[in-house]
Description:
The chain has about 130 residues and is α/β, with parallel strands linked by helices. It has helices at about 15-25, 70-80, and strands at about 10-15, 30-35, 35-40, 45-50, 60-70, 110-115, 120-125. Helices cover about 15% and strands about 30% of the residues. The radius of gyration is 15 Å and the shape is globular.
Amino acid sequence: xxKDSKAFSGFSTNNITExxxxxxxxxxxxxxxxxxxLTIYLGSGSNVLVYPKEDHVPAEFTVLNxxxxxxxxxxxxxxxxxxxxxxxxxxTDEKGVARGLLANMGPDIxxxxxxxxxxxxxxxxG
Length: 126
């Protein structure tokens, strides 16, 4: 029934203006605003709806993952734009990257938050 649906994801924010600026200017994504909601256009051809919510509570899990060719380059470029990466004791190195998610159990990955506190990640492709 939904197999061919053009499904998309969504999450909330407590500040549409700050969120739009972050995704557009800091992350360099195409973002439109309509009826007080944002649509973030992803390189995969998909999009994400971001909607305002007064009693917004940030997600405690990763809501959006960005595969990158080189995690260290992406990390450095985002850091230079003011993005602060999360440090998870026992998981991330001194830089803030989980290398192979401890003993080669997955890709190198680093987490950061958007202005509303939602968790995002960059991770090595492939």
